[in-house]
Request: fold
Amino acid sequence: MENTALYQERFNRIKKAINLEPVDRVPVVYMGTAFTARYTGITMAEYCKNPNASYQAQLKTMEKLGEMDGANMAGGGRITPLLSAMWMSKLAVPGKDLPPDSLWQVQEAEVLTKEDYDTILEKGWGKFVKSYLPRVISMWEFLPAMMWLKTNTKRIQKEYKKRSYVVICDSSAMPTVPFEALCGGRSMSQFFFDLYRTPDKVEAVMDVILEETLAAIDEVKPATGINGTWVGGWRGASSLVAPKLWDRFVWPYYLKIVEALVAKGVTPVMHWDQDWSRDVERLKELPAKKCILNPDGMTDMVKFKKLVGDHMAMMGDIPASLLAAGTPEDVHSYVRDQVELFEGKGLILCPGCDAPINAKPENMEAFVEAAHKYGTM
Amino acid sequence: MSEQLKKALSDLEEEAALKLVQERLDASDDPMVILAACREGMSEVGERYEANEYYVSDLLMAGEIFKQAVAMIGTNFKTDGGPKRGTVVVGTVQGDIHDIGKDIVVSLLQAGNYNVIDLGVDVPPAKFVDAVRESGAAVVGLSGLLTIAFDAMKDTVDALSAAGLRSNVKVMLGGGSVTEQVREFAGADALGDDAQAAVSLCNQWI
Reply:
C-alpha cells in the first residue's frame, strides 16, 4: 500500500536539495541498468528483451540495497532500442549479437553520411530520423518498444510511487542535443572532422534540429512530481571538444533547450558523462535552482561547488570505476567527502552515470549505508 | 618550408598542410625531410595538448591530417620512414569494442616514430601474448572504456606473465574509467590520463 507521508517526505527532501535549501538528510537515489540485472540474477538478454523486467528488477534492487529516496530514472521498457535511437547507432545486443550475459555496446560507425546533412536541411529533422532509424534498428523492434513505453510509463511510475519512491526524471520530455545525435550517427571521428571542415553546414543542420526540438518542448503538458528530464551529454564534453567548437556547437544548444524546458516547468537534469570541468562555470548561465548537474565522477566537483554551488544542485557522482574496483571503505570515504564538500546542501547522492555491470554488490550497499551515515544532518 | 609545413599541421590547417606536402613532393624534396616536418608538427600538437591549449577534437584532426600526409609521402618513397624508436603493441581488451581513444594513441605513437602493432578491439589476451612474442615489443598498451575492461586488462597482464614475457615488457593502461586503483588491480606498470601520456611513457621506457 502506498505510504503517502513517506513519499511526501522524500519528495520534499529532493525538492529542497534542488532548491539548495537545508535538508534533514542528503537524498540518496538509484541509477543503474546492467547492474540491476546482475544484482537480481537475470541475464542481460532477459533484461533487454522483456520490457517489464527492467523496472521490476530495479524496484527489487532498490529494496535490497537499503533505504533510498527514489531513482534518477525509472526502469521499464527495452533499453537497447532506446539507446539505438538516442545514439543514432547500431547496438550489439546480448542474446542476439553477444553472449546472453554480456553488456550491450554501441557500434561506432559512420552511418549518417555527409549527404544526409543536405537531406536534413531539405526535409527537416523529424522526417529524416524516420527514414534514418531503419539503418540502425529494425522498425519491427523499435516501434513496439516505443508503443510499450507510451502505454506503460504512467503505470510504472505508479509502481514507484506505491513504494514511496520518487522518480526524478519523470517528464515526458527527453530532448537530445543536436551535437550528440549527429556525433552518434556520423561517428565521433568523422563528426569532429566535419566541425573543422564544414562548420557552417553542421551549424545549419543543428539549427534545424534545435528548432524542431524547441517546438516539441513547447508541446509538453504541465505535470506534477519533480518533472525532471534527462538532458544528456557525453561527446560534447569539455575534455573532448576544443573551446572554439564547444562555444559554437555545444553550449548554445544546451542553453536554449534548458531555457525552453524551464519555461515549461520542467527540471533539466544535465546528465553529463566525461569531464566538463573546463566549462563548468558556464552552468551559471542557466536559470538558478531550476536544474541539476548529473556528472559521472570525472568533472571536478571542487570547482563546481566553488563556482556554481550556490546556483544549482548536483546529483551524483560516485564513479563507476570506484563501484567496480574499489572497496566499501573507499565508497564510504568518497560519499563522506562529497557530503563535506557540499556541506549537505544542493546534493543528491547517486551513482555517476549509472552503476556499472560489475559494480560489487558490497560497494553498492556501502553507498546507500554511507549516504545515511554521513548525509544525516 | 619545413617551418611552414610544421606550422600548418600544428595549426590544423588541413588544406594548407596537404598542399605544402604536395608542393614539396612535386619539387622532389627528400620525403624523409617532409615526413620529419610533419612529425615536428605533431609533436607541437602534443605539446599544445599537454598545455591544455588543444583537446581531443584537435588531436583527432591533427591525426587525420598526419595520416593523409604520410599516405601522400608513402607513395613517393619505398622505405617505411627510417629506423623506429621501438615497437609498441596496442589494443582494446577483450569484451570492449571502443576504439576512439586507442586510435588516437596509435596515431600519436606513429607520429612519434614508433612501430605500432594495432591489434584492434575486443582483443583476447592470447593475441597480445602472440604479438609481443613475435615482435619483441617493449611496451604493451591496453585500452578500455567500460568497467568490464578491468578484468580483461588483468587477464591480459596475467597471460603475459604466464607466457614468461612480463619482465620484458612495460604495460600501460588507458581509457575513460581507468584509475590508479585499476592499474594496481590489473598489475600494469602505469596508466595514462590521456593519449599524449602514452607517448610520454614510451619515451620514458624506450
